[in-house]
């Protein structure tokens, strides 16, 4: 049964607490580099996540458990979790990346076996990375206010930030180094394809572009969020998880509706975050590229290019993963989003137009004549007509709807015959009634025309019950006839009859 209601927070917390947690599931942001978009090469020295360089902190006693930030903290969401583990005061200016508005940056993480040795039940893309940016960070930014709320144009959730990019955790080239041996298939295959050393781990990366409207001499904060749940393979389409199609375990606690999955598809909800602070500086221009490139070359000396190069495909799109994004506001239905495109539910509402009732299709040309509903096809109206005694009325009513083919034959009197052909072009759906009594003038090209005239072979109403000309008419005229029946407001135009 599809779950559509809100799951009690305490109930979900107990459910998730009762499930086993993995002990080695952790990754975080290792380093950040500027990118030269023309060459894809990294530039300058790296920056680090808030708190500093973990590798330098390890000799000082820092451990994985102290560094990583796994959510929910106690195995069950309560809706009040901060997205940032480290407070603003933990930022170390000397270890932050300097970048300019519009710069491309590479955010590196190690796969730590989550790609090389995928666990059963884990998403086939090894989880999805969401990169959120804000110029207004606080120590109390909540994941429930940000994740799947902030959107590409900054109009989602509390509107304090935006979604910069989505990426697969597995960038399809990274691997954990493995020496030659029985357990080296992925490392060997990938290293061989890109010319790297299979024993030397190649970090994964998320390449993103900073907004172009950032203020120089300011700070911009990026929240790196990796969602990596343990799924029940019997209750979810695992093949679709390669495209990021799986739920976030916090959606039920937040009260999202129509999530598209039952809550029991998730055996264990796991999300990990890192916080990145970037010093926004005035544009460095091309003059600095040479110096910056030299610094990066020194850092990566002796290594193959993939260690110091952005991924081409990521530089061509901001949103590499589709995902279900709830509409703005808690408890509103998620929609399948191609990121970067605002959810349909956020589009401005368009008032419904009032449409007048339309006449039925059948048309009576003479009293007692049979009713025919034409099918929409190409218009060709052929008339062979001499007034018939059986149709003495001085009024002819004709209705054209959509585009139709209609052939009408009225038995001519022995005295004369007139045959002509006309094509009626209907540009939009119309409901038009043309009616005129005998000898009533009909407006043609803004001039009064006697009722005994012809219009390009189309028999005008005045001819009903009158003697027709004996020769075939070749007159070509365009008539504009105003509709006597209201048409929809968005479709109210004059109907041209073109002979």
From TrEMBL:
Residues 341-357 have a biased composition (Low complexity). Pfam families: DUF7492. The keyword Transport does not apply. InterPro entries: DUF7492. Residues 23-234 form the DUF7492 domain. Residues 321-373 are annotated as: Disordered. Residues 1-25 form the signal peptide. It comes from the Eukaryota. Transmembrane segments: none annotated. The keyword Signal applies. Keywords: Signal. This is DUF7492 domain-containing protein. It comes from Emericellopsis cladophorae.
